[in-house]
Amino acid sequence: MQLWRLTKTKYVSNAFDGEGARLYGARWNSPRTRVAYAADNSALAVLEVLVHLKDATILPSYSLITATIPDALVADLKMSDLPPMWSSSPIPPSVQAVGDAWIRSGLSLALRVPSAIVAGSNDVLINPEHPDFARLIVEAVEPFDFDPRLLRS
Hints:
Structural class: alpha+beta
C-alpha cells in the first residue's frame, strides 16, 4: 500500500514515530497512545494539514513523504465498527478508544480508517511499536509548495 504524509520538514526523520499524536491525541488516539497518521492519497494528506492550520506562515516549511507498507500488514476498520458521530468535532472519546484498542492489540502494522474530511478517502494509522514497523519504507521526501489559492479568504 502506498501512503502519504505531509509534515514539517524539521520532523521528516521522525515523521512516523507517533510522538505528536502521543503528546496531544487526535481523532483515532487519545494522548499517551503513540500512533502515526498518513493518508491514502496526497490530496488528503494536504487537507489533513489545512483543516488543522492555525498559522499559514509556516506552510513553506512542509515536506511530502511517500511511503509504502505491505498490503498484508494493513487491516481495515469495518464501517459497522465506527462509533456514532465518529466524524464529528469535537472528537468523541469513543472514536479515540477504537484506535487505542487497535494499538494495544498489535494485530497489524496499519489500520485503514475512513477520512472525516473527505468521504471515500482513507487515513492510515501506523503503529510505530509494531514488530513489522521496519517494513514501512519511505520512498520519497520532497519539499511541498502549497498553492496560494488554497489560502485565499
